Amino acid sequence: MSLQVQSNYTYPPNFFTNEGRAVVYFEKGKTALLIEEIVLCQGVGNYTIIQYKDGRKKLFSKTLKEFCELFGDFYFVRVSKAYLINLKYFKECSNDGELCVIMDNEQRIEISRRRRGDFQTELQRFLKKKSKSGF
Prior knowledge:
The protein is 19% helix and 39% strand. It is an alpha+beta fold. It has a single domain (5-133), classed as CATH 2.40.50.1020. The strands form three sheets. The protein has a six-stranded mixed β-sheet with strand order 1-7-6-5-9-8, with helices on both faces. It has a three-stranded antiparallel β-sheet with strand order 2-3-4, with no helix packed on it. The longest helix has 18 residues, at 116-133. It starts with a strand and ends with a helix.
């Protein structure tokens, strides 16, 4: 898989489109990330692959930790050293030997033992908000 690396990010992440959806701009405004369409982020060294709900992938020269900080207010949760998932696209948990999350696109991601508590807390918070707002 050959992905073009996106860099030269701009801050802060509080930019919004006319529809009121959260967007982060990269490459001096040329590349926009529509946060609500991101299913997960996968850290690969000092790079991060972002996977969208339509299956597209983009590679960024930014660490997964930086994306965790950037998406912290948007119900993303880090489930392992290599994965940050969007709870909006979380489907279910599976316990076939190892505890895994299954995303809407049927991708299985193992939850590390160290991050299980944080995952459960964030999932409960998300489900509580979801039931109140009805989205």
